[in-house]
Amino acid sequence: MTEATKENVSAVLATKTVKGGGRTYFFDLRESKNGNKYVQVTESRRDKDGQNIRNSLFLFPDHAQEFQSALSEIIEQV
Q1: Which of 45, 47, 52, 58 is 20 to 30 A from 22, alpha carbon to alpha carbon?
Q2: What is the rounded CA–CA span in Å between residue 73 and residue 78?
């Protein structure tokens, strides 16, 4: 990693990992350089060619409660 890249990486304050069905999910609480906290959810999986694929979602505090409520409602229906 170059010095410029290191400067742009947010600090990880806490992390949880969930594995299942050939996928791994990382739930990271991060803090940006300006001190704002946010959640990064990353899905990691391999495609049919064996290539690692990662997709991330960034959740900021101003939408956290609404996101949690919507997710809880959907999970109750599973």
Answers
A1: 58
A2: 9
pLDDT tens for each residue of the chain, 78 residues long? 455 445 666 889 999 999 999 999 999 999 998 899 999 999 999 999 999 999 999 999 999 999 999 999 999 999
Q: Which two structure tokens, joined as six digits, stand for 58?
A: 């960034």
Q: Domains in the chain: how many in total?
A: 1
Q: What are the structure tokens assigned to 76, written together?
A: 């109750």
Question: In this structure, what CATH number is given to the domain that contains residue 52?
Answer: 3.10.450.700
d(CA 52, CA 46): 4
Q: Hunting for tokens 């990691």 — which residue is that?
A: 44
From residue 40, give the alpha-carbon distance in Å to each of 20, 27, 46. 19, 6, 20
What is this structure's pTM? 0.79
